[in-house]
Amino acid sequence: MTKATDNIALVRKGFEAFNKGDVATLKEVLTADCVQHMAGKNRFSGDHKGRDNMLEMYGEIGALTNGTFQAVLNDVYATDHGVIAIFTATATRNGQSLEQRNAMAFTIVDGKATDLDEIPLNGEVNDAFWA
C-alpha cells in the first residue's frame, strides 16, 4: 500500500472506533500529544490538547447525546502526510436533532494522527445544538 492509502485506512479505522466507543483503538490511532481543534462558540470549541483530553471530550459528547452521536464518514482524501475527511454528524439532544456535514483535516506522522482540525458546514447550527 502507498502511504496515502495507509492514511485513509487509519482515518477509517478511527471513525469506526469513535462510532463504537472503542477507546482502545482510538488510543492506537492518536498520538499521546495529539491536538483537536474545534470551531465555533460552544462547550466544545477550542483546542483539546492531548489524547486523554480528546477522549474525555468524546465521552462528554456521547453522554450529552445519550450515545446517539455518530460521525458518518462520507469521503476521505489523502496524501502521504495528511487526510481530509468529510463526514455527517448526527445526534439527538434535549429534543433537538443534529444532521450536519463537517470536514476534518488530519496531520499524520509515523502512522498516527497528531493534529485534527474540525470544521462544521454551519457553525451556527453546531453552536445551537450544543447550547
Outline:
This protein is α+β, with helices and mostly antiparallel strands and 131 residues long. 36% of the residues lie in helices and 44% in strands.
Describe the protein.
- This protein is an alpha+beta fold.
- It has one domain (3-130): Nuclear Transport Factor 2, Chain: A, CATH 3.10.450.
- Helix content is 36%, strand content 44%.
- The chain has four helices and six strands, in the order H-H-E-E-H-E-E-E-E-H.
- The chain has helices at 3-20, 23-29, 51-64, 123-130, and strands at residues 30-38, 46-49, 70-78, 82-93, 96-109, 112-120.
- A six-stranded mixed β-sheet has the order 2-1-6-5-4-3.
- Helix 1 packs antiparallel against helix 2 (23-29).
- The longest helix has 18 residues, at 3-20.
- The chain is globular, with a radius of gyration of 14 Å.
- The protein starts with a helix and ends with a helix.
- The model has no long low-confidence stretch (mean pLDDT 96).
